[in-house]
Amino acid sequence: MEKWAEIFNLPLPECKKCGICCLCASPSKSYGELLEKAAQGDGFARDFFSIFIPYKNHDQARKICGSIVERVLKSRGEDVVFYRCRHYHFEKKCTIYNERPNLCREFPGSPLVILDENCAFYEWSQKCRESYKKLEKELEELKNRKKQLENTKYRKKCIDLLCRLKRSENEDYRFILTVPAMSIVSPGWSWIR
Ligand code: SF4
Ligand code: SF4
């Protein structure tokens, strides 16, 4: 996230510690994939299962964080599992704050993550996305410009080549004209007998 903040000159906001992300996690990997990764020793997957437990169904998650559930389902389809953290307490908030895993410390990790509108990073992520799109558009324009320049260079090469051909054609033409002229001046020299 620091890289995004630095590149787009958008300072990172302060987390409000509202706990929405603790109550409504929806990783991009499926439950099965995450389990497999955890079994293979993947650090993120292990940390994830050490704190998160899945909601029984979408309605249960909707009751806690309806807005983000709808947005995630709309964007990623119905096949998403939502989780809540076993260490979150509605009054005390995070009960293991000083020992929380890296995935919590680094959240949201990227502005491309779907965030609740009340998350402190929401506005920041929207601005990053806008700047990213702008940069992408500029890059596309630069690529087109490069192509145009290459075409111009190619065209210039073709014109050069044509000029050279024309020049050599003229030389051949002059040579063809010269032979009969020489045969008149000096018949012994002539190729046309
Ligand atoms: S460990 Fe703490 S910060 Fe991390 S998800 Fe749970 S409650 Fe939130
Ligand atoms: S939802 Fe955003 S503001 Fe709230 S605790 Fe999570 S990161 Fe912080």
What's the structural blueprint in terms of helices and strands?
Elements: H1 2-7, H2 20-23, H3 31-39, H4 43-51, E1 52-54, H5 58-76, E2 83-85, E3 88-89, E4 93-94, H6 102-105, H7 122-185
Antiparallel strand pairs: 1-2, 3-4
Helix pairs in contact: 3-4
The chain binds iron/sulfur cluster (SF4) (2 copies).
Descriptive report:
The protein has 193 residues and is mainly alpha-helical. The chain has a domain at 17-119. It is built from seven helices and four strands, in the order ααααβαβββαα. It has helices at residues 2-7, 20-23, 31-39, 43-51, 58-76, 102-105, 122-185; strands at residues 52-54, 83-85, 88-89, 93-94. The radius of gyration is 35 Å and the shape is elongated.
What's this model, at a glance?
It is built from 7 helices and 4 strands, in the order H-H-H-H-E-H-E-E-E-H-H. With 193 residues, it is mainly α. Strand 3 and strand 4 (93-94) form a beta hairpin.
